[in-house]
Amino acid sequence: MSGNERPTGQQQTSTAAAESAFLKACRGEPVPHTPVWFMRQAGRSLPEYLKVREGIPMLESCMRPELVTEITLQPVRRHKVDAAIYFSDIVVPLKAIGLDLDIKPGVGPVVAEPIRTRADLQRLRALEPDDVAYVTEAIGMLTGELGSTPLIGFAGAPFTLASYLVEGGPSRNHEHTKAMMYGDPELWADLLDRLADITSAFLTVQIEAGASAVQLFDSWVGALAPAEYRRSVMPASSKVFDAVAGYGVPRIHFGVGTGELLGLMGEAGADVVGVDWRVPLDEAARRVGAGRTLQGNLDPAVLFAPRSAVESAAREVLASARDLPGHIFNLGHGVLPATDPDALTRLVDFVHSQTQA
Amino acid sequence: MSGNERPTGQQQTSTAAAESAFLKACRGEPVPHTPVWFMRQAGRSLPEYLKVREGIPMLESCMRPELVTEITLQPVRRHKVDAAIYFSDIVVPLKAIGLDLDIKPGVGPVVAEPIRTRADLQRLRALEPDDVAYVTEAIGMLTGELGSTPLIGFAGAPFTLASYLVEGGPSRNHEHTKAMMYGDPELWADLLDRLADITSAFLTVQIEAGASAVQLFDSWVGALAPAEYRRSVMPASSKVFDAVAGYGVPRIHFGVGTGELLGLMGEAGADVVGVDWRVPLDEAARRVGAGRTLQGNLDPAVLFAPRSAVESAAREVLASARDLPGHIFNLGHGVLPATDPDALTRLVDFVHSQTQA
Q1: ipTM of this model?
Q2: Does residue A224 belong to the interface with chain B, where contact is any CB pair within 8 Å?
Q3: What is the torsional sign of CA B268, B274, B278, B281?
């Protein structure tokens, strides 16, 4: 963590949360045990989640403060993870500014009219706090309930948002996105810049409401080579990190298949860099450089193997993290839907027991 | 290329083909120009392919020697690429030994009864040359037609084949595959060993019929961390490369998202290592080490951008390959279906013109 952070807004991390293992690890301070949380810990793998979501479309569930609060708390209650992550979806801020999009079960976000021309940019207006009043309300409830457990704010990064908007939905190859990026760099830069502003505003709302950290998800950015990332993506991601730097909350950055990008993703302004399971943490540390905490990186598919195999794989992760200044244990990607929740609970317990100071 | 290769079989590479830019580059010798070919050059992007395939299911088309010959030749005629690749599908040898599987349009290979237990292994009998007589016949025709253009033999690698067999079809997360790999390493090793033998036999048939090189496609292996690759996959891939080493034909190895595995994939026994677009070739060379040619690595999505952007990206690839002992220009993954064939033809011409000695 750099020393030049000046809280400029109302940031409400409680003293108890500030002393949590999770936030200590983010800051690279000694911890009582290695903190653990899981990407997608709130969601599809939990029966209590499936129950409260019954009959409620995904986007609607993200706009109901009581429901968001309940879903965000569920994995904290069940698994005793060291941090909660705000339950949302990366397209929520885009929906909030009035874009016609929906999340189709089994497909993902689908955008009615893709963004492909300069004229289309007009549809990306600025996000105002009032557009997401339910976020402020939900986080207000959450921080009351969470006590000393820190809450991580959540947002999708400009590249990944752009891919959904330009393709019109999930894409394996990102053809249209890359055609714009390579073929019309100015339009591309303007698109990402607008998305950076929207994302910054969305994270700011969450921090001002009480989030103690933020994670910027660039799920698809592993589709790019380093030179292209530096040229076409990093300026926008940096803009987001800079916009929230003044609050002094740790900024986590994560993507999948980003082995070649880890150094640049840290440079973009992250205090914590998430690593998928493809790069051992000691090698990731060499790429990210000193002064940043790493988060990861158990293969989520390992949880389908017997307990002894899970523990042996978790031990390998912990061993590769031994010399890091800060480590947050997580999976290398989100919890897979068919994962046994008990395997997750056991894993939290195992990591805690292995690392108790 | 090592000097200890002793042709033991009937290997029919013509003198003209042996002197081709492609085979010279495989051997790390000086070339008249950088050779170019494209993964999936024969197939979905070509109107003449769609025409000859009309009404013929994929697997059937792989078993008709005249059709295979025509499809394999089409991109050579149209694009003037420096090598042909034998038209097939990675599940062809599995179909040939009697497994109940099919290739569903828009889905991929689907296996009626997945392989999940030791008893299931019995279904993986050895492949005999007579099981794939159409391959021998097609290659006989092809080498006559191709003249000095070398033919690359084609096979899927044990891990990728295993993933289809264990999952029962394409999979994003390979849960069942990894559950077996982590949970029952002995069963896993035996499965991969059988697949290595089948693959070796399939490649041997192609080499004896006249293929001048072979490429082993491990499309999904980028889903593994290096330690897991070394432990659970490398022995089987090495077995395949060893089995064909005596023929002295260059052995190419390719996967996607394999930045962390490049060194090990070379070590497994490849003479040429394929690199996707995520790792710059100069960095890939550091990971692969001396004595091996690299193949790649233009992002296939770049071909959706205007010509000037394609040329600028191709120039970057050539620049990053400048100091390599051997370079074969290719895309970093297969040609995408919607690619304009003319863009491919222009790209071949561009690479040739930029690199003419």
Answers
A1: 0.92
A2: yes
A3: positive
